[in-house]
Write a structure and sequence with these properties.
A 15-stranded mixed β-sheet has the order 8-7-6-5-4-3-2-1-15-14-13-12-11-10-9. The N terminus is likely disordered. Helices cover 11% and strands 57% of the residues. The protein has 234 residues and is mostly beta strands.
Length: 234
């Protein structure tokens, strides 16, 4: 009986994972503009790709506009991992600054040991991780698989150095104007308990819940905003 139950459970998990992969797009490519108030700071190009039960997400940020002559740096963030019945499971996460390699971060995940091996600031450390922990990049694309269904959603997030608990709250649906036109968006909100900042995300309901806009409101009232400029899904 136990063997039959185990085989049934494995079959159910396999069918769930197959359904999850079938619903996910093969590729999502999005470009965003970054601004602080009315000042353009840069552009972000993000690409999500999947092949079977594996995924790779890249995010490249380049200074532009008023800062392009002052900040000649490029940020590259990469998340690689597996797609399971519960969503994205990161295996490798890296944060690279082209002109400031001392600030680079690389993390690998050992899920059987529930440990993250982190390399940053010239040192190596092991950090305990909770099941379902996501990195700063994969946590945004996890919504493609598991859109927030409840009024309050909790998740564990790592920046490659430490692990923090995120709490998201649904704020209803809104029509968001973008450079590509109007989209119906799910608005979710997060209070950063460490520094008191507010983070708001608007996710496209008919585009696999891809972020349309991300807004960071600092304690002093200044706002940094990442807004969609272009989007392709296949």
């Amino acid at each position: 009986m136990m063997r039959i139950f185990a085989l049934t459970l494995l079959a159910a998990c396999a069918s769930t994972e197959a359904a999850t992969r079938a619903e996910l797009p093969l590729e999502v490519r999005a470009e965003y503009g970054i601004s602080r108030g009315s000042v353009r700071l840069g552009t972000v190009t993000e690409v999500f790709r999947r092949e079977g039960d594996r995924y790779v997400i890249t995010s490249e940020t380049v200074a532009s506009g008023a800062l392009s002559w002052l900040v000649r740096d490029k940020l590259l963030v990469v998340s690689e991992g597996a797609i399971t019945g519960t969503g994205l499971t990161p295996l490798v996460y890296s944060f690279t600054r082209e002109r400031s390699p001392k600030k680079n971060v690389r993390a690998t995940f050992s899920w059987t040991q529930r440990l993250m091996n982190s390399q940053h600031d010239g040192k190596t450390s092991q950090v305990p991780i909770e099941p379902g922990t996501l990195d700063r990049l994969s946590i945004l694309y996890q919504f493609m698989i598991a859109p927030p269904a409840n009024e309050r959603v909790e998740a564990w997030m790592t920046n490659g150095k430490n692990v923090t608990r995120y709490i998201y709250e649904r704020r209803g649906t809104e029509t968001i104007q973008t450079a590509l036109g109007a989209y119906e968006a799910l608005h979710i909100h997060r209070k950063d308990t460490e520094d008191g900042n507010d983070v708001d995300l608007w996710l496209a309901q008919d585009r696999h819940f891809v972020p349309l806009r991300i807004r960071l409101t600092h304690k002093d009232g200044t706002r940094d905003e990442q807004s969609l400029l272009s989007l392709s899904v296949r």
